[in-house]
Design a protein that fits this description.
Blueprint (H helix, E strand, L loop, with lengths): L11 E5 L3 H7 L4 H22 L3 E8 L7 H24 L2 E6 L7 H14 L5 E9 L1 H18 L4 H5 L3 H5 L12 E4 L18 E4 L9 H12 L10
Parallel strand pairs: 1-2, 1-5, 2-4, 3-4, 5-6
């Protein structure tokens, strides 16, 4: 049954999933056990987003810096990505969820990229929710690759140099990996850490932030609904006076 509609629902909620390893360690398990349990929290948040009228839900699943983790953990995470996408796609598609992956996909294994492409193509026309996984992503990488795209375009079209050099913020945003996606209204980070960790540095310029001590594997529908309720009480001024 759908939840009762809320007022002031954020269009885009983004989650920095943190605490999987700590959650597993507290239970005497290997870190990968926390990652597996964290998939259940992802599923719960997707369902809660649809139920509460959120149109975009994104998760920070793996940063560019995470490639520096032990190879065994990286391999386990990538295998988990493949397994989770294959297992969840039927349900996502049947519920009208559009699936996207954003990040430096050149670093991903061919098998994973094939699964991603298939899932994105299959769900491309869905409109109930856009679910985005930021994978092999960092905010600095995104801004840098956008600047490189712009530089190449100027080099290829020197006659447009003055036009492009005078472009504003909105013009530059079309070079970002998130082009066409609204900036997050609310960014939630779990596990008690109070930082962005190189995530959506441009796009989060005016986002509301919520930092919670809850570890990611314990963040389920009640916690998601509580985050929406907290957001609903915020007064967003965007630098203006009200």
């Amino acid at each position: 049954m759908a939840a009762e509609p809320m007022n002031n629902v954020p269009v885009h909620v983004s989650m920095i999933m943190d605490g999987n390893g700590r959650w597993a360690r507290e239970r005497g398990k290997e870190r990968v056990y926390g990652h597996f349990e964290g998939v259940e929290s992802v599923r719960a948040c997707v369902e809660a987003a649809v139920e509460n009228g959120v149109k975009y839900l994104s998760i920070y699943a793996f940063s560019e810096e995470n490639w520096n983790r032990p190879q065994e953990e990286v391999d386990a995470l990538m295998a988990l990505m493949v397994k989770a996408m294959e297992a969840e796609m039927d349900k996502l598609h049947s519920n009208g969820v559009r699936f996207m992956v954003i990040g430096n996909r050149a670093r991903l294994a061919p098998e994973l990229n094939e699964v991603i492409d298939a899932c994105m193509a299959r769900t491309a026309a869905n409109t109930a929710l856009t679910f985005i996984i930021f994978l092999s992503y960092s905010g600095k990488w995104d801004i840098l690759q956008a600047a490189k795209k712009m530089a190449l375009e100027i080099a290829d079209h020197p006659e447009r140099r003055e036009e492009m050099m005078s472009m504003g913020v909105e013009g530059f945003e079309r070079y970002l990996a998130t082009a066409g996606i609204p900036d997050p209204d609310l960014i939630v980070r779990t596990s008690g850490e109070n930082r962005l960790s190189n995530y959506l540095l441009w796009q989060g310029a005016y986002s509301e932030f919520l930092f919670t001590d809850t570890l990611w594997p314990d963040f389920r529908k009640p916690e998601f609904k509580a985050a929406l309720e907290t957001y609903a009480k915020r007064d967003r001024r965007y630098g203006k006076v009200k």
